[in-house]
Design brief:
Low-confidence stretches: none
Strand content: 5-15%
Strand order of the largest sheet: 1-3-2
Number of strands: 3
Mean pLDDT: 87
Helix content: 40-55%
Largest sheet: 3 strands, antiparallel
Distance between the termini: 31 Å
């Protein structure tokens, strides 16, 4: 299932993740860390791949269409876990 969000919203999600979350997502999904970074807007394709993220110019950094929300969903789960620990 695809998801459409703004690029800035995607970056805010990445920036709100706790330290080590990118590595955790990569480990859990058997991906390289750079591939996860690329998913959140990085552009180093020498050491990572593009996983179904398409950016179109527009307001708020542009529009991002995520063809595969697996990494996005893992990031949301980590934030939910973090919020539960603080409660």
């Amino acid at each position: 299932m695809s998801k459409t969000i703004s690029f800035n919203e995607l970056r805010r999600l990445k920036d709100s993740l706790p330290d080590g979350a990118t590595h955790r997502i990569a480990d859990e999904l058997n991906l390289t860390v750079q591939t996860v970074r690329n998913y959140f807007g990085g552009v180093n394709y020498q050491f990572g791949k593009n996983i179904g993220m398409h950016i179109e110019p527009g307001p708020d950094g542009g529009i991002v269409v995520l063809d595969d929300t697996t990494i996005y969903d893992k990031a949301i789960k980590i934030l939910e876990e973090q919020a539960a620990e603080k409660a």
